[in-house]
């Protein structure tokens, strides 16, 4: 017997008999003999819970957990504080063992929190509509670009080199299959070169994509970029943002952005070695019926009661099939719930405090690290919670030395930008203490 | 349970808070000394102000308005709503898995990489493939990645005429949507009366413009495509590649493998076959597996091993590139590997046997009361075509809504498209005979009610918290956020 | 199914009303009936030049979506804005509520369309 299979031997025999079969093997008589697997799968046999847990614990221990180290690594995934309350709520099995809310009568829980999630995101970004989430920040950028190209019936996507390198790689992969042309616009002192962008704009431009704060943590001038992006008819201006930064920065919706996307992992979702995370998309009203992914809307039931349903489904694959706006048929449901709880738990004041503390601590770290002149700022621009510094010391070597002191060092920018060899991007969240920052600074000072 | 119908915004009260952060311990300089005023927000964030108890009560109340596998039977066809084992939740939350940054140095992430490597091997063995990519985020994402691999293969061969992907008319909507997203034209091939791919129609549509065929086996009618080798030959002879949609893989674990049937690319829906929770819509995971000749096109990075060292391998000669951030839905992969270790080779095989037995047992009991368009040996699911009484005014939607009154999640309805009034039932292996019998009784009751008192069925549901919310109103005048 | 006289029809269930060089285009009763409650109508822009059999509009109901194709090639000179605010008009009277007004590019294409009598026969065979 297996714990997840309740059928007893007697029941199995009785059920087989009722359908006129003799053995469980007969259930597979319709599979031609020559493709039936005539051996056991080459896998270990079933194991007890104790054995499985013990083995997986041994694997987990081979990793170095952030709970024992001090993390200054970011570059798209951040060590922000996660309130305890989140895991308790998302562990309710009415939430995590349910399917996509196709039956609204018994899915009002899921539907309502998605509606709340959409509302919170619209308020945070200053947009009119938001969807129920997408796979991650990188694919969200790509989905926005594909939507813009399809709507404008044009094939050129302009993306800034200050956008996260992995995001641009994913964009290349998708652009290739859709025969879209991706043009990268250069940077100048760590921000998008707007003069260069202006020159690249042409009648085939379907979208302009920037990230703010950008990959180097620097705040881009969205307003000025928007003016350039909108010089061309039907071009969409897409901005990828860190949602936490919007607690203190101007909202993209107020700066002329058409579609806001981003990664919301920092809002209550564990780092978990890169996933699952939470991509999001919010947009101006005109994009409403072209958005990819699920959308929840408010309506009334037969008795006039306020209720929620999946809506605008005519965009989606199960109806449109090959004419769908995207093939996506899921969202990051449970992670959207985590982010919703995060946003309401931190609330009006808390999210601002997270953003403020991150900024202030990051700037303190920046000043400490660059004080002696051994490490120099790579750029001279206003930043949020990440900054880049550079030196002649081998970056990998720095990170090995830091690791010995139980510190996870920053991201080596030379991996993606050869011109920034030995430059390191440090992330400082509200979780870092002055002592931790001081220790980082003193260890760095001591590295030769 | 008291009636609760508030939005979190309606609970808000100025001055409340649900968080507490340590005081700032660095010098508190004015934010304007760091960031120019032109970038700083000049308005208050319009977020709720609530206490921790408010948050807990609110979402606990919402959870009561939901139905999960832990609540009851969920026979949603093609979705494999099997039980989500609790140990999986524990292992995914282990400190050494949950608190790992994806960019930590290789020496610090050996445990994660080893787990991914072992899962890769296990899934490849189950699928009969040579190498997996664990990167895709969901089934549909796996499909897209797989089709990109096929496209890259044809491109490398200079085979630019191949512009078409063939899809059976019984396919999931994602198949044509995926192929179109990858820039292909779709050719639909008809099913025979017996619900299988029509070989003659297939022969008529393949050619030197065929890039590939996407197929679910068993198909969406729950039928095993017994001519699969012949299908594979037809497609391969024409120079096309064969794509396996793993949505229905729960039917054949340890009994047959897509790789042995002739498929070149496979995706698994980890959240179906390998018991990870659906989470109200996600996150899932959709790893793909390929045969040797396609390995060079897989997305980067792959997880490989060099003696005792596990590493992220970016050296894939003709890779399609990256398809998502980082390396995949690691937390979901931990759950899946936990499940595979728990079930073992014997448990997985048994799971498919019982999933298939349960489906056939139910089909046999229900066919007296409901129209069973194809009466044969099913795999893990079967499709009814509404009530036997074709003149009844009771539709499949009414039946589904009436099942809610009986405390069940209804089956998948109106899919596949080729069956009129379709009711697609997939019981899975984790349901007991009592549960199946009780559900069968409810279905029989509804069929009788439909002739004796159809209005009761047409007005269903009667005892849910909301009843048939108006979808037309929602779509005509969309209200997508709270405006209060 | 209602079939209005004096209109020309396609086998995709669009109708055309010719008024000199100009034509009104809409969907037939059969199409609105099969779509169900229409919730959204997407219309082209003025001055768009669209070829015969290319899609000029998408009509969405809760459970379905359909592309609507040009019965004849032409340049869009007017769209029925009322449909954007009240898509249900297409359900209420699909013949009264035209979708677009075009300048016909090649009148000979009209000859390929069905008369109302032919369309009625076509519908009978479809059933």
TrEMBL record, chain B:
Domain Glycine dehydrogenase C-terminal, first and last residues per copy: 351-468
Catalytic activity of the protein: N(6)-[(R)-lipoyl]-L-lysyl-[glycine-cleavage complex H protein] + glycine + H(+) = N(6)-[(R)-S(8)-aminomethyldihydrolipoyl]-L-lysyl-[glycine-cleavage complex H protein] + CO2
GO molecular function, one term: glycine dehydrogenase (decarboxylating) activity
EC number, UniProt record: 1.4.4.2
Oxidoreductase as UniProt keyword: yes
Subunit structure: The glycine cleavage system is composed of four proteins: P, T, L and H. In this organism, the P 'protein' is a heterodimer of two subunits.
Protein name, entry field: Probable glycine dehydrogenase (decarboxylating) subunit 2
Organism: Tissierella simiarum
Organism phylogeny: Bacteria, Bacillati, Bacillota, Tissierellia, Tissierellales
From TrEMBL, chain C:
Cofactor: (R)-lipoate
Listed InterPro entries: 2-oxoA_DH_lipoyl-BS, Biotin_lipoyl, GCV_H, GCV_H/Fam206, GCV_H_sub
Co-factor binding comment: Binds 1 lipoyl cofactor covalently.
Modification N6-lipoyllysine, positions: 63
UniProt cross-references to CDD domains, sorted A to Z: GCS_H
Family the entry assigns: Belongs to the GcvH family.
Protein name as annotated: Glycine cleavage system H protein
Organism: Tissierella simiarum
Lineage: Bacteria, Bacillati, Bacillota, Tissierellia, Tissierellales
